[in-house]
Amino acid sequence: MDVLRPQIVRVGRRCYRKTFQSEDRNGEEPYREEEVELPEAQGMYCDEMCDISTNVEKTDSGYRLALEVPNAFYGLIIGKKGETKQRIEMETQTQIRIPGRGQLGDIVILGRDRNGVMSAKTRIEVLAASARKRQYFTHFLSFPITGSDIQNQFEEFKVDVLRECDGDRGLDCNIFQTTEKLHLTLGILVLMNEAEIAKATQLLQQCKEDLIDPILRGQPLIARLQGLEFMNDDPGDVTVLYAKVELEDGSDRLQNLADRIVDKFVSAGWMKQDYHKLKLHMTILNGKFRKFNNKTAKSVGQNDARKTKERETFDATNIMRLFGGHSFGMQHINTLQLSQQTVGPDGHYILESELALP
What we know:
By secondary structure, the protein is α+β, with helices and mostly antiparallel strands. The chain has helices at residues 74-78, 83-92, 114-133, 148-164, 194-216, 253-267, 289-293, 302-306, 317-323, and strands at residues 7-11, 14-18, 57-59, 62-67, 94-97, 107-111, 139-144, 183-189, 221-230, 240-247, 281-286, 327-333, 335-343, 349-356. The strands form 4 sheets. The protein has a 4-stranded antiparallel beta sheet with strand order 3-4-6-5. Helix 5 (194-216) runs antiparallel to helix 6 (253-267). The chain is elongated.
C-alpha cells in the first residue's frame, strides 16, 4: 500500500486516511531519515482534500500554513538526502520549512496556490500518521484497581497458584502482574511530545461533562472481579490470563462508559480501535512480563525486549482447573487515568492526568 495514496474512510462528518502499519513497529528509530518512494504526479494536486476547513493564512505572495508535527517524524518527512521533502515541494509547487534538529516550532508550508499548500499538508500528514503507527505506545487510559481487598486477594492468589501449579510449563513469579499496577485498560496512545500530552489531557477532562456525568448520573460503579479467562483457545499455550469484571448491579454502565470514552479518543485521532467492542479485564499473568521482571533479562534492556516479536507462553491448564472461578473481590471504580507506559520509583505507572468518578 502506498502511504501517500491511502484509503479514505469516512465516519460521520469526519474523514480519515487508513495508513499502512508495519508488522514490526517496536523499537523503530524515531529520528532516522528514511527514503520514501512518492508516487509520480498525475496532474497538479491530485490528493483528495478532506480538511477543507483548515485555516490557511493569505499572504502577499500566496498562502502560508503552519502544521504541528512531532519532531520525531521530521526524518521521514525530509527523507534520504532531503529527497522526500524536495519531491513534495516539486509536485505541489510549495516550499516546506522544517525546524532544524533541536529547534522547536511548526512545519511551515508556503505556496502561491492554496490547493498546492493543502496538497503538501495532506502528504506530510499521511507520512506522519504512517510513522506514528510504527511507534511503541507511550501512554494508556485505564481504570486503576487500588482496593486493598483485591490487592490482598491477588497476592494470596499468586502464592496459591505458584504452590499448586509448581512445575507447569512457563509458570513462575515473573509473569504475574505487579500488585501496584493492577488496572482495567481502555486503550493505548502514542503521544510524542508535551503538546500532544496536553491535548490528550484536555480531551480526558472533557469526558467528565460529555460522558461521565450523563452516563453515570452520580451513581457509583461497584465492580466484581471474578473468574479467569485467557486470550486464545488453548489453555496449554496461553500468553495472557485475566480476571473478568462486571458491575454488582448487573448493568452495562461500565462497559457503555468505556466504549464511549474509547470512541471519543479514536475520533480525535489519539487512539486506534483494534476491536469492535472493548473487552474490559484485569490482566493477572502475561508471558511478556518475564522479559521485564526477570533479573537476568534486565541486562538486555527494555527497548531490546520490546523488539522481540514472539511472546512467551505458559501452560494455564491447571490454573483454570483449580482457580477458574476465583473471586478477587469488589472494587469501587472511582478514577479514570491517563498514564505513561513507564513506571516510577514507587512501582506505579507515572500519572499524567486523572478524573474522579462518582
